[in-house]
Amino acid sequence: MSRVTARRRMRRITPDADIQRPDTLAVEEPLEIRIGGQSLTVTMRTPGDDIDLVHGFLLSEDIIGSAEDIVAARYCAGTDDQGRNTYNVLDVTLRTPVRAPARSFLTTGACGLCGKTALDEVRTRTRFPLPPGLPAVDTRALSAMPGMLRDRQSVFDATGGLHAAGLFTAEGRPLAVREDIGRHNAVDKVIGWALRESRVPAHDLVLIVSGRASFELVQKAVMAGIPMLGAVSAPSSLAVDLAIDARLCLVGFLRGETMNIYSYPERIRVEPGADSLLA
């Protein structure tokens, strides 16, 4: 955990004390992603699982469609003031070389795109459109997933400052959990894991995130063919619009035994005796 956390001095004031001591913080460092030596983008992330992050990011941006599209991903030489490699530059070699596009990624809430343009772009770019008739997930299995996600947040326990994303089977078995200072990076990391494990399109998996459900996170799920996204907090209006448009079941406020279903409620199966879950 040495590179994902750092110690910094701080002053803590409470009604009973005024003390100075070290605090454990989540590390935030830039990762520059290059394609064939040409800079593509820089993202601020928590170091770790960078290869998964790059695979997931490139899939989300429709630059690759499978793990086989990447021939190699290597860290470039980059040193700190003590001459140590920072591992903050990663160069990707593609099987079919492409020119790194100018940055026009759908990655922020302030990207300047109107809602219809954003929806149309995701619809036309995804290689794995969600088919109709996808299987339902039991309420009990779904409601247990955030707790299992939280139990696997080891760095959050130390710092209190990281987002998490996890991929689960429809029956509720956790497959991959990743943490990061950025919620979009955490999602890219689990999608990258799925891609490298030949689980994309992920039509049989559920994505759970520890925060809110933004348009960007729904977009990433759609690009990976994930049919269900559950968030412990609220979705945005455009996230719901995209979920409806793309046939993704979007669940918000997934806390304990309560949940709000914003799209395709028929994909949530209420078990006998659990009717109060959807009250």
From TrEMBL:
<protein>
    <recommendedName>
        <fullName>Sulfur carrier protein FdhD</fullName>
    </recommendedName>
</protein>
<comment type="similarity">
    <text>Belongs to the FdhD family.</text>
</comment>
<dbReference type="GO" id="GO:0006777">
    <property type="term" value="P:Mo-molybdopterin cofactor biosynthetic process"/>
</dbReference>
<comment type="function">
    <text>Required for formate dehydrogenase (FDH) activity. Acts as a sulfur carrier protein that transfers sulfur from IscS to the molybdenum cofactor prior to its insertion into FDH.</text>
</comment>
<feature type="active site" description="Cysteine persulfide intermediate">
    <location>
        <position position="111"/>
    </location>
</feature>
<keyword id="KW-0963">Cytoplasm</keyword>
<keyword id="KW-0808">Transferase</keyword>
<dbReference type="InterPro" id="IPR003786">
    <property type="entry name" value="FdhD"/>
</dbReference>
<dbReference type="Pfam" id="PF02634">
    <property type="entry name" value="FdhD-NarQ"/>
</dbReference>
<keyword id="KW-0501">Molybdenum cofactor biosynthesis</keyword>
<dbReference type="GO" id="GO:0016783">
    <property type="term" value="F:sulfurtransferase activity"/>
</dbReference>
<dbReference type="GO" id="GO:0097163">
    <property type="term" value="F:sulfur carrier activity"/>
</dbReference>
<dbReference type="InterPro" id="IPR016193">
    <property type="entry name" value="Cytidine_deaminase-like"/>
</dbReference>
<dbReference type="GO" id="GO:0005737">
    <property type="term" value="C:cytoplasm"/>
</dbReference>
